[in-house]
Fold these 2 entries.
Entry 1:
Amino acid sequence: MARYRGEPLQLEGSRALVMGLGTRQGGVGVARYLVRHGAEVTVTDLNDAVSLQASIDALQGLPITWRLGEHVAEDFDQTDIVVRNPGVPADSPWLERVRQRGGRIEMEMSLFFRSCPAPIIGITGTKGKTTTASICAGILRRHRPDTVLAGNMGTSALDQLQSIEAETPVVIELSSWQLEGLAPYEMSPDIAVLTNISQDHLNRYSSMDAYIEAKRHIARFQTSSDWFVVNRNDQQCWDSREVTAAHVVPFGYLHADDDGAGLEHHGLYWSRSGVRTPLVRADEIPLQGDHMVSNALAASAAALLVGARVDTVRQGLRSAQAVPHRQELVASIDGVDFINDTTATAPAAAIAALETFQHRPIVLISGGASKGADLSRFARVAASSAQHILLLDGDETANLTAQLDGCGATSLEGPFPTMQSAVTRAAELVSEDGVVLLSPACASFGMFRDEFDRGEQFRSAVLAIASPGDGGAS
């Protein structure tokens, strides 16, 4: 049993400061948890009450002190514990102020890991972690209907603690920032899954090596009784097995003597002790793209290690569904598919989307804010794959425009100041049987509240141009 299990913090009578309420339910869950355990809670956020209204409404009636639109030194100087939002940089001077006087800094996930009575499947990666977590949870719900899915997806893990028993399967998606919150307390999940690693968040990390090390925290503190499910065909991932004491279970195109979840001749299989058990054919999985097959292999391995039956895994894979905002079909209008892939904020994720639809005429909507990643490969793929490229406004768009020009992109327009104007123009340009693909390869800051707001604005714009009767996926 991992060292953190069953050791929740004693919060009764403590002064707790939630730093960053946010709009994705994590901060709401933290505040509820702290109040429920007897802490005196203050919430501080640089955003004002108007932008945070939905989260504030969710906490209505609770004894919370609000400090919105600013941070105040007194709050940080007088608190016993700060719970920081993943969006707050670890090197924030406000947090350093707390550290210097010996104060405790936690995150939602460190509180959850301490309190969760069940083994945890934790899933991370530059791309695919949400889809992998969702597929895994979908399989496990057929195994045990009380399976819990939460993490970096707008669902608070702490809010679900009261429904988790010792045998409840728990699947948690973990971002690199959430893993940062686990590292100081040497916490890793019982089953760790690493889908892939490529450039991302280099606006927050000092180097690519620093980002990789953050991702490796998912396995770094595992014990010899744990499992590390890792991509055999991604060298950065595969090298990560050196940091863990866990049993390593590879997935992907396996070597002859590998035990794990493999792909051969378009068929998925599970190999243990040299015995191969077929799972499904790749074309039986409803989700498109080679990366989705990789996600399915990772999810299958984790579910099987928990104890799911092979037949249950087969059923789960054959009924897997797309996750909102991830290559999501918003509508089919006059034979044209409008695809919302707003969470493709890293170049590798956007390249995967272009490869998924490479055999159809593509109008690509891309661009936005910088995350420090190298966009050169994305520019080459986009220039050769998309018939038209429409760029959204943002501080990275000028750089992306220059790179696309250099790669010979023949139809390039923008920057567009609104999603509505970009979608309207895309609908005018797209060929019959084509695809309008929102896959930005950039962050959303500036034009949008976050990437999910960007996806919702895309959805609204698409449905606004749909003729009566066409306003939905078909």
Entry 2:
Amino acid sequence: MKRQYCASVYIIDFEAETILLMYNKKLEKWLQPGGHIENMELPFETCLREAKEETGIDVSLLNNSSFTSFNYQPVYVEHYKNKVGDMIDFQFVAFPLNKKLSNNSENNLVKWQNISNIDTECDIDDEIKFKAKFLFNTYRETYFLLNS
């Protein structure tokens, strides 16, 4: 099985206290937007492109190392095997620049999920629930400092 590289992004609306999730038909579960890294793309460029393609919105990445640097670092790098293949996923966190969602043919369900009641949703994996709460609490202050 050939190893594949992808990037994904946890899009958090810190003001509304929601996270953007999409239903992946291939994997049959709710996930953060993301996809395969294309030729000569950096992982952070992939997650910006995939966010727009899969949800219709533009996002701004939050950098976990500096307020002024454009050296975006992933918050997680995960290795896993699933129906798609042997994957390395570079995961980032961002906030939406606009909130008008659009669906596409590959992943036709996109929704804003309230973080405060995410634990009651039985169709969302525990890993996504944990990361949504953790990233919201970790980056909330950074977001409000950057946008005040």
